């Protein structure tokens, strides 16, 4: 009963916040939610490879191309060659167009804007994001307020990475949904709260009864720490629940992370876990869960030894998820030209079960961001 009362109160609070937001809105640039997806990591890596070179070469600005005064375009193309080997088994190799992403961003006026991102991935074309953003120009106690509505990546987890492949934390927790998101920002602090209707049938019928919250602190420009909460981990893209009829409870989850980035060095650390147990029937029916309380953590280090070069290493582990793997590896990235990067990554994976074969994966990537 207390949980239902909290959900009802949260819904009313979001409606009230939206009303107050519109009441106090004035002219300001409309901002959209920060991109946390795997493609956001690649774009950040390309920008980091160029950052030092730009200081020395005074390279041209790489802002998105504009169409008139109100519309801008940006995009990403990835081509990958891979070699995968399983211990005492066959190996395979592949060459694929891994990703094509096109983002269109428009500002109706100074306080209303939106963006649409089209994504071609795994031979499918999809609307990855479509968001309307409203930004309040009047700061209250130094706080900038934004309201976002549409299909978006929810602010649960950070998933930062210097590598080519996704960390296990992203595979477990990344969540996309049609959502209403309220964002409050100060110079050192960001608070986000979002409401959405879940897609997994948990016996609650069809109501807007799922929510997420995130807090991040930036005590210095190089350092960011944060924590986030999702009231039902089954809503993530990991497809933890295979048979909805067996799932009648919500399983909450939390994430904590730290990122530290200087001109030459970087660290990303994150831990993401379910706060409760999935019931045994759900675990047995699906393939993703190998236990009742899934969790994952990842630790990465990066070093830029020379201009346009980045070397990175990762160690990560998952429990009660994907057969409890341990994975480590390294990657080297080079900024070939402005907006173009190449990378080579090697990963080794083993599992808790002695009978599970070890895996090795080698990936080469060519990426263009524009």
Key descriptive features of the protein:
370 residues; mainly beta; Porin; 16-stranded antiparallel β-barrel; 4 helices; 17 strands; 15% helix; globular; disordered N terminus
What would your notes on this structure say?
By secondary structure, this protein is mainly β. It has one domain: Beta Barrel (Porin). It has a 16-stranded antiparallel β-barrel with strand order 2-3-4-5-6-7-8-9-10-11-12-13-14-15-16-17. The protein is globular, with a radius of gyration of 21 Å. About 35% of the residues are buried.
CATH architecture: Beta Barrel
Provide mean pLDDT, rounded: 87
Shape: globular
The total of beta strands comes to 17
Strand content: over 45%
Unreliable stretches? 1-6, 15-29, 58-63
Structural class: mainly beta
Q: Class in CATH?
A: Mainly Beta
User: N-to-C terminal Cα separation, in Å?
Assistant: 51 Å
Short structural summary:
This protein has 370 residues and is mainly β. It has helices at residues 2-24, 38-57, 168-173, 280-285, and strands at 65-67, 71-86, 91-107, 112-121, 124-135, 144-153, 176-185, 189-196, 210-220, 223-230, 253-261, 265-274, 295-303, 309-319, 325-337, 340-351, 359-369. The radius of gyration is 21 Å and the shape is globular.
SSE layout and pairing:
Blueprint: H1 2-24, H2 38-57, E1 65-67, E2 71-86, E3 91-107, E4 112-121, E5 124-135, E6 144-153, H3 168-173, E7 176-185, E8 189-196, E9 210-220, E10 223-230, E11 253-261, E12 265-274, H4 280-285, E13 295-303, E14 309-319, E15 325-337, E16 340-351, E17 359-369
Antiparallel strand pairs: 1-2, 2-3, 2-17, 3-4, 4-5, 5-6, 6-7, 7-8, 8-9, 9-10, 10-11, 11-12, 12-13, 13-14, 14-15, 15-16, 16-17
């Amino acid at each position: 009963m207390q949980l239902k009362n909290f959900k009802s109160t949260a819904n009313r609070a979001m409606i009230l916040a939206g009303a107050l937001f519109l009441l106090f809105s004035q002219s300001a640039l409309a901002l959209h939610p920060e991109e946390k997806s795997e493609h956001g990591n690649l774009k950040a890596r390309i920008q980091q490879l160029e950052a030092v070179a730009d200081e020395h070469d005074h390279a041209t600005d790489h802002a998105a191309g504009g169409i008139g005064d109100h519309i801008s375009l940006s995009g990403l193309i990835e081509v990958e060659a891979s070699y995968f080997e399983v211990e005492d088994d066959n190996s395979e190799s592949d060459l694929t167009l891994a990703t094509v992403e096109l983002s269109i961003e428009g500002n109706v006026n100074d306080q209303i804007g939106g963006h649409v991102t089209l994504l071609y991935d795994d031979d499918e074309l999809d609307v990855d994001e479509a968001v309307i953003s409203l930004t309040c120009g009047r700061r209250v106690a130094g706080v900038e307020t934004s309201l976002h509505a549409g299909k978006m990546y929810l602010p649960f987890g950070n998933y930062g990475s210097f590598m080519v492949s996704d960390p296990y934390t992203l595979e477990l927790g990344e969540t996309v949904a049609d959502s209403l998101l309220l964002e409050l920002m100060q110079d050192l602090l960001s608070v986000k709260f979002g409401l959405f209707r879940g897609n997994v049938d948990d016996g609650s019928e069809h109501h807007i009864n799922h929510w997420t919250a995130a807090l991040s602190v930036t005590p210095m420009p190089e350092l960011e720490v944060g924590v986030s909460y999702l009231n039902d981990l089954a809503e993530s893209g990991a497809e933890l629940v295979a048979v909805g009829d067996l799932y009648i409870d919500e399983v909450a989850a939390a994430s904590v992370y730290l990122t530290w980035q200087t001109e030459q060095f970087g660290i990303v650390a994150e831990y993401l876990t379910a706060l409760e147990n999935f019931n045994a029937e759900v675990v047995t029916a699906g393939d993703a869960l190998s236990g009742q309380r899934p969790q994952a953590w990842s630790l990465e280090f990066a070093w830029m030894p020379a201009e346009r070069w980045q070397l990175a290493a990762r160690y990560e582990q998952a429990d009660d998820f994907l057969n409890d793997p341990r994975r480590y590896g390294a990657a080297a990235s080079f900024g070939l030209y402005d907006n173009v990067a190449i990378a080579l990554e090697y990963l080794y994976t083993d599992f808790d079960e002695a009978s599970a074969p070890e895996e090795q994966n080698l990936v080469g990537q060519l990426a263009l961001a524009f």
